[in-house]
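Handout for the seminar on molecular recognition.
Each group receives one record of this type.
Step one: identify the two inputs.
Step two: read the structure output and locate the region that could contact adenosine-5'-triphosphate.
Step three: write two sentences on what you found, then compare them with the reference statements printed after the record.
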Amino acid sequence: MNVFLADEAATTAFGRQFLSVLPEELAGWTVLLSGELGAGKSTFARAVIMAAGHNGPVPSPTYTLVEPYLLPRGVIYHIDLYRVSSEEELRYLGWSELDDGLRLVEWPDRAPGLSATADLELLLAYEGDGRRAELEGLNERGVALVERLMQS
Ligand SMILES: Nc1ncnc2c1ncn2[C@@H]1O[C@H](COP(=O)(O)OP(=O)(O)OP(=O)(O)O)[C@@H](O)[C@H]1O
Ligand SMILES: [Mg+2]
């Protein structure tokens, strides 16, 4: 799925629409958010988290690595691997303890092998004053979700 997001509001609306096609139970889903610095990964994550019922700030997890949000449909883990530079730091993250939630992962390329277990990858790229978003299902349920999103 390929869409042009003209401004920040469009990215936010896309995040909201994305959440609406996820199953009620968010646990166990992993979404990779790729794209260069400032491409809009955090904007998308913030939109999903707010649409799921969070009121308040959504700080960047660049230093904490993970910010958890306890919401009515389950936990959302906003993860940013930008500063991760070694396998050891990744172990410190305690990845397996994040199974009970929806994982939104910025800079997923820092964790080789993550795409093998993820459901979806959103690739954001600069295009003029806006952004181009390409959403790809990485497994069967991810592909089905993209189908639902295109029909929604
Ligand atoms: N569709 C869009 N068109 C134009 N600007 C946008 C769009 N989506 C988000 N932005 C803007 O891009 C800027 C960077 O956004 P954001 O912080 O979400 O990027 P990021 O990919 O998370 O960056 P980083 O790699 O530093 O984590 C923000 O000022 C945001 O308002
Ligand atoms: Mg970010």
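Reference statements: The chain is about 30% helix and 30% strand. Residues 5, 7-8, 10-11, 35, 37-43, 106, 130-131 surround adenosine-5'-triphosphate (ligand 1) (CB under 6 Å).
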